[in-house]
Every structure is written in structure tokens, then in C-alpha cells.
Amino acid sequence: MLISHALQAVGCTGDHRYEEHSETGAQIMAVEADTSQNAAGGMKRSGAVIGILSAISLSHLLNDTIQSLVPAIYPVLKNEFHLDFGQIGLITLAFNLTASLLQPAVGLYTDRHPQPFSLAVGMSVTLSGVVLLSQAHSFWMIVLAVALIGTGSAIFHPESSRVARMASGGRHGFAQSFFQVGGNVGSSLGPLLAAFIVLPYGQPSLAWFSLIAVTGIIVLMRVGVWYRKERRRPKPAVSVAAGMEAVFSRGTVARAIGILIVLIFSKYFYMASMGSYYTFFIIEKFGVSVRDAQLYLFVFLGAVALGTFVGGPMGDRFGRKYVIWFSILGVVPFTLILPHVNLFWTVASSVAIGIILASAFSSILVYAQELMPGKVGTISGLFFGFAFGMGGLGAAVLGQLADLTSIRFVFNLCAFLPLLGILAAFLPDTRKKTAKVVKDQ
């Protein structure tokens, strides 16, 4: 269904209630004035929205399938190149820091100068990283290869998040979840592909995954055509940005953004422990094979995909503040027991952690976009970039800590990170404020 909708997306130019466009070099949020025309054209819009959302979600799936291969093949690389945990952490740091440093800059630039075809360019850079990784014969070549994959991801995420918002029809939480669940499904596929392809056939088999990148380039070229047409169409609109700025003072916005950044730190430091070291943890504690460990990682990442999908719509319905609060703080019981239970309950706890913790990001991202309307690229780049950066820094720090202590010590320590979710109580409620601004307009 996702693929069929994606392939039908070319040429779709349906109307949308909410869209971002460029005016005098700056992005503003537009609200379509003629609501009766919106209602009359609902069916046509729906097809166009789902087609574009499906295409961008499929592209996210392809992009994140490739990048998820990096941590999934860590056991292979560790044995092949005789790496220690510190070097594993540095590989993750190279990928995540490349993405984190570039994404805010890409988002800021594309807010002022939208680039419809930058999505395909980003996937092309990822393609070069995949090919190099399949042929790497030293530690530093591996670092360079994953840095290229990180660069491609940095170019992809801010503009693809903007496309998802453009095609949302006003359901921003749903659109972000639909977009992000593609990435999470892709991330969950990495361990499976590593278990059934890379483990049996070795590092050179990674070259086959260049076909995934090529497919992504084709889909994103078609999305770029739609994006360019949407930007050129005239849109009767009124700006709500000024009203939102009047509702939330700069101090309130700065404090809220600061809290969100702390929550991202908490979430992605813990996710770094799971994504990079969960396989090593269960291999060491339970003596399972590398292949079985990859399958258990797949179960966790599948739970992350499910949590991502439900998180956005829940934020639309119940309020993003409360979803953020629950999704960070609600995992604490499971993170605390995971290091101390048997294999069955370890896997069960990982599923609960994945579903609950992953429900946060869509709501965090849309919440921040509501705080700073008209700056979709900047906000997307900042939060995607910070998430990647915290994941990379977490992997590097935790890898060094595991070398000095043990993997079990790392998981016991990280179990307390979600307690920072209590800070979500201090976030302002944007639902009432946004409704007031729209009514006043």
C-alpha cells in the first residue's frame, strides 16, 4: 500500500489547508482562506496528500534502512577489523556528528532558499557511502564511509520533514508520524538484512544495498517535482506567525526549547545504548548467537516503529505536551528492570521501551514547530541534528565506559536517564494558544 501510493504521487498537486512557502526569502505558515473550497475538494486533496506522504515515508524507509545497517554490522566489523568498544563508539560518533552538525545548517538554508531536489542529492551522497563501506579495508575508511552516509542523512531530513508538513492537510502530528514511521521501519530492517545477508556473505555484500539508494533517488526526484509545483502555485493565505509570537514570549519559547533539548538528550542517549550495544549486552548475558541477537534487536526496533506511528496522532488528539511527558517518563519502570531479568522479560521490556519512548519524537518536533511557526526547516534540522548528535555522542561515551567497566554497568546507568521526563511538566500547552490565534485571525 505504501509503495503503491508512493508511485502514484508523481503529478499530484492537490490543495492543502496548511502549507509552507517562500516569501521575500523567509518561510511563513499559510492557512487557506476559502474553507468551502477545501470541503468541496476534499477527496482530490486526500489522494494527493496520501500519495506524497507515502512517497516521502517510503524514502525515509529506504534512507534509514541503509543507515541502520551501520550499527547492525558492528559485530561483523568488530571481528573483521579487531575493533574495541571505543572504536565502535567512534564509528557511531562519525555518523551521528556529521548528521547533527550539518542538519541545522541545511534546515536554516532551506527555510530561506527551499531546494526541492536536495532530497535526491542527499540520497546520492548516501549511495557513495554505501559503496565505500562495502569496499573499506581499514578503520578510517569505515569512518569516512559512515560519515558520507551521515551527510546524506543530514541533507535528507530537514526538507523531507517540510514536505511531510506541506502534505499534512493540517494534521501535523499524523503527517510527522507517517513520515517518521517509514524511517523506523527501515531502522528495524537493518538487523534482519545484516543477519540474513551480511553475516553469511560478508562485508562486500553491502554493495547490493546500493540498489536501495538508487530506488530512493528515483522516488525523491518525483517528490521534488511535486514540491517545485506546490511552491509555484499561488496560495491565498494569512500569516499566523505574528500571532503566535504575540502569544508566546521569547523567554517562554527559549525555555520550552531548552526543555525539549534536555528530553531529546535523555531519549537518544538511552536509544544509543540500545541501538549500539543491546546486541552485545544479550550476547554477553545470555550467550545467544550473533544472528539471534540481531533478531532481538529487530524486535526492539519494530516496537520503536510502532511507537512512532501512534505518537503523532495521539499528540493531535490529546495534546503534545502530555504525550511527551508520558513517553519519556513512562518507560522508567521498564528501563530499571531490563538489566536484571531473564531473556524473555528482557525482550518484553525492550518492546515496551521501544513503543513508549518512540512515541515522543513526532510530538516533540511538531510542538517545537508550533512554538516557532514559519521555521520548519530550522526546527527540523535542529532537532533531527541534535538527536543524531546525542545518539553519536552517547554511543562514543558509552562505548568508552563499557571498555572501562562493563556492558551491564552501562545498561544499569542508562536506566535512570528517562527520569528527566519530569521536566515536560513545565512545557506550556500550545493547543489552547494555537486555537486562540487561529480564531483571532
From TrEMBL:
Sequence ranges assigned to domain Major facilitator superfamily (MFS) profile in this UniProt record: 52-433
One family name in Pfam for this protein: MFS_1
The keyword Transferase appears for this protein: no
GO molecular function, one term: transmembrane transporter activity
Protein name per Swiss-Prot or TrEMBL: FSR family fosmidomycin resistance protein-like MFS transporter
Entry keyword set: Membrane, Transmembrane, Transmembrane helix
Segments traversing the membrane: 85-109, 116-133, 139-157, 178-199, 205-225, 253-273, 293-310, 322-341, 347-367, 379-401, 407-427
InterPro entries found in the cross-reference section: MFS, MFS_dom, MFS_trans_sf
Keyword Transmembrane belongs to the record: yes
Entry GO CC: plasma membrane
Annotated organism of origin: Chelatococcus asaccharovorans
PROSITE patterns named in the record: MFS
